[in-house]
Amino acid sequence: MDKKTLEKSGVFVYLYVMKVCLKGMKNFPVEGGEELVKSFSEFLQSQSPLTNDITIEFLDTRQGDMTTGVRYPGNKIQVLSAGRLPIDVLRTLSHEWIHEFQTQKLGVDDSKPIQDIGGPEENMCNVLSGIFIKQFEQTHPEFDDILYGGN
Ligand SMILES: [Zn+2]
Question: Of the residues 48, 84, 109, 143, which has the fewest C-beta atoms closer than 10 A?
Fold first, then answer.
């Protein structure tokens, strides 16, 4: 690229400035899940970058009317973890992460919960979370055993 073109198009520097707070790691289905969740969070941030810090809490029982995961205003995600395979926990996490991305970056209203089965927001989460989990599996063979519950 010549200097003139470069000047016109600019140089993009991507800075990852947000942080993720993990809670309830004791409820994660396998021991030593921190490295896996950390790596998966970095992967999600590279695919659907968030600006605001988020809290991710792993639960041993369902709370309220959640299914396997829920996202609350205030950048908080809860994921049901006990009795599930790590790969399923991460799929739920990526689903809720994309909801977070929708509110932080795509202008989806933070104040009302999305429970619209078949609606555009929900479909986007379902499609992307399936793609993300497959991409992560392919690019992170070091987690093969742990993703399926082995240690
Ligand atoms: Zn959803």
Answer: 109
- Going from the Cα of 126 to the center of ligand 1, the distance in angstroms, rounded, reads 7
Question: Backbone phi, then psi, for 102, in 5-degree steps?
Answer: -60, -40
Task: For residue 57, give the nearest of 29, 73, 80 by alpha carbon.
Answer: 80
Q: What residues does each domain of the chain span?
A: 3-147
Dihedral sign of CA atoms 147, 23, 59, 28 in order? positive
pLDDT one-digit tens code per residue, 118-144: 788 999 999 999 999 999 999 999 999
- For ligand 1, the distance from its centroid to the CA atom of residue 121, given in whole angstroms, is 7
* The domain over range 3-147 is classified in CATH as 3.40.390: yes
Indicate the DSSP class of residue 21: E
